[in-house]
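ok new one. same drill as before - structure tokens go in, u give me an amino acid for every spot. 481 of them this time. try not to just spam alanines like last time pls lmao
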């Protein structure tokens, strides 16, 4: 596998306007600090390893820390991962058939996904259509509901119905925190494209049916991708930020994170106070000292909430979770892509997803079950299919996007029974092909909050902030009781 690991970061000064094109020096510049793996040749391949030869610790050190894509042959080894053996069409319908899903419907068999409309239908209807050979519909990321405290849920309702057949946190991924879990489903004999884009989270992509072909570029070539938004920062771990959507390297909005951590501590302090008061009532030894400590902790926690609110200027404690997740209304694969292209592993960032979600909302006189698809800021304007055209077509593409031909590319094919790990903000285009038996293509993917503690010794603590781990613990505390 041809590649190079940068130890100091490329420190490229990227100049882009809102369309992702060259801009005057007067405009905001972006420093590309990416320090991960980059290709050394113009055309490259991706390493392939057997899942049985990789421990979680090895995987973290070799691929996660270095931000290196890898194809894993074989499925997850977790005993809970029963999807490959159990997910027949009949079982999918049995478990989740009556739950509504949103799918993209193309207007013509030759249209690319990403230019159609979003249609709502029962999951069993989609499964039946695909089994009958339909190539017009495609299941991508779904809108997820918000929990009572404002957190976006980990998966869509129909995925919850299927959760008994896959682990919530695969052992392979160590201590990375899941952000979203999705299913991708369609049927294309001649291939359909997702469009060239990047996601905002680390991606474990598991192919259960069909075939996928990936075109990949590293975040080090972000300035050559001609994205639709204006890039302002590429973090050392590769995470790309856009104007007005700046985050920490691990994907949290800084001011909102301060509020979130303060609110989490307040909740924990309130719980400890209640338990200490109960201990006093029960006459437990040392209960009075425990109560005093709990009262002091809560006082400090409340002060922390006030400080966080003040530092943010406004401080709306009710909405802290939505902002800390960089999430507005829904997070689909979509920028991490619920409304674009084959959005096969397209992923919109929670906020890019917001743009897509808003665009997908029905217009006043439009059927409420249909919505047009739009592209998020993380999608490239380069149509790579033009590279398969005539010499003139290729020349015109390179004239329109001159820096694109300088980018170093890799290709990899993924077959059923294989997985692809793709670090956050690696650019990729996915072509999907149905399986020979006519059951289409089917994939499951996990998105993870991007880690920023990228040394092997940080296996148990891959984030520089406790936010994501505390949030996860609090989110699922009810399930532990």
């Amino acid at each position: 596998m041809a590649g190079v690991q940068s130890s100091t970061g490329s420190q490229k000064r990227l100049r882009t306007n809102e369309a992702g094109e060259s801009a005057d020096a007067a405009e905001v510049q972006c420093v590309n600090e990416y320090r991960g793996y980059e290709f050394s040749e113009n055309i490259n391949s991706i390493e392939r390893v057997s899942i049985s030869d990789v421990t979680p610790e090895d995987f973290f050190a070799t691929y996660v820390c270095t931000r290196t894509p890898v194809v894993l042959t074989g499925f997850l080894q977790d005993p809970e991962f029963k999807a490959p053996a159990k997910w027949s069409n009949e079982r999918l319908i049995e478990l989740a058939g009556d739950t509504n899903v949103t799918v993209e419907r193309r207007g013509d068999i030759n249209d690319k996904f990403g230019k159609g409309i979003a249609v709502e239908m029962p999951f069993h209807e989609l499964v039946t259509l695909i089994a009958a050979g339909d190539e017009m519909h495609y299941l991508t990321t779904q809108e997820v509901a918000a929990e009572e405290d404002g957190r976006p849920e980990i998966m869509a309702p129909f995925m919850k119905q299927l959760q008994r057949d896959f682990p919530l946190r695969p052992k392979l991924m160590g201590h990375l925190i899941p952000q979203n879990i999705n299913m991708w489903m369609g049927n294309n004999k001649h291939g359909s494209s997702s469009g060239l884009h990047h996601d905002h989270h680390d991606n474990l992509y598991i192919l259960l049916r069909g075939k996928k072909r990936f075109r990949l570029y590293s975040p080090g070539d972000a300035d050559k991708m001609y994205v639709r938004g204006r890039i302002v920062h590429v973090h050392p771990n590769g995470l790309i930020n856009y104007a007005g959507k700046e985050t920490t390297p691990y994907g949290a909005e800084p001011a909102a994170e301060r509020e979130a951590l303060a609110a989490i501590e307040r909740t924990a302090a309130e719980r400890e106070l209640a338990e200490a008061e109960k201990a006093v009532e029960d006459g437990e030894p040392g209960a009075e000292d425990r109560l005093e400590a709990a009262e002091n902790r809560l006082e400090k926690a409340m002060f922390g909430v006030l400080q966080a609110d003040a530092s943010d200027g406004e401080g709306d404690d009710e909405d802290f979770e939505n902002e800390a997740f960089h999430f507005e209304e829904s997070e689909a694969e979509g920028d991490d892509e619920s409304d674009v292209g084959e959005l096969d592993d397209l992923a919109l960032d929670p906020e890019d997803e917001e743009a897509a979600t808003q665009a997908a909302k029905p217009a006043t006189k439009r059927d409420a079950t249909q919505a047009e698809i739009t592209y998020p800021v993380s999608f490239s304007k380069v149509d790579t299919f033009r590279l398969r055209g005539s010499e003139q077509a290729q020349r015109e593409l390179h004239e329109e996007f001159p820096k694109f031909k300088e980018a170093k590319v890799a290709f990899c094919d993924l077959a059923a029974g294989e997985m692809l790990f793709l670090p956050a903000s690696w650019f990729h285009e996915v072509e999907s092909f149905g399986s020979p038996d006519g059951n289409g293509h089917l994939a499951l993917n996990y998105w993870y909050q991007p880690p920023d503690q990228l040394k092997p010794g940080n296996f148990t603590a891959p984030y520089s902030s406790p936010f994501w781990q505390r949030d996860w613990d609090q989110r699922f505390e009810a399930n532990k009781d």
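The first helix runs from residue 56 to 64. and btw The radius of gyration is 23 Å.
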